[in-house]
Specification:
It contains five helices and no strands. The protein is mostly helical and about 140 residues long. The structure holds fe (ii) ion (2 copies).
Length: about 140
């Protein structure tokens, strides 16, 4: 989703809420699988979670940087620093997703991966609230 919908608080927020709710639920299920030693299912679940982060949340971030952020920076130069900070949040999401993939590839600690999935949720939650507040007039 991109274009005009991203400029409207309610529509944009509902994109955030829906994608976030799904990864949050998936992360909760993943923890349950690993706590119950269901490793094979856990690995399958991880593929789905990572795909979801990439296809929904990172793709949303990419489209903001290619459109909405450029437009807002042009219209409201005073928000330039805020946009730089929001882009740093996107970068953190990309880095953490990349780290999880490396960890998975090398078959390292699943406990470390669980904590990285949870970190992603925290960063994404704060990022979404800040974006709504500073760029879309929430507040
Ligand atoms: Fe964003
Ligand atoms: Fe957004």
């Amino acid at each position: 989703m991109s274009g005009p919908a991203l400029r409207q608080l309610a529509a944009h927020r509902s994109i955030h809420e829906s994608a976030h709710g799904q990864v949050k639920e998936m992360t909760r299920s993943l923890r349950f699988l690993y706590e119950n030693e269901r490793s094979k299912e856990g690995l399958e679940a991880e593929k789905v979670i990572l795909e979801h982060w990439r296809d929904h949340i990172i793709a949303h971030a990419d489209s903001e940087e290619e459109g909405l952020y450029l437009e807002i920076r042009k219209e409201r130069p005073e928000l330039s620093e805020t946009i730089t900070q929001l882009m740093r949040d996107h970068e953190l999401l990309r880095k953490i997703v990349g780290k999880i993939e490396e960890n998975l590839e090398a078959d390292e600690s699943r406990e470390d991966r669980l904590s990285m999935y949870e970190s992603l949720l925290v960063v994404n939650w704060h990022h979404s609230r800040d974006e709504e507040k500073y760029l879309l007039g929430e507040g």
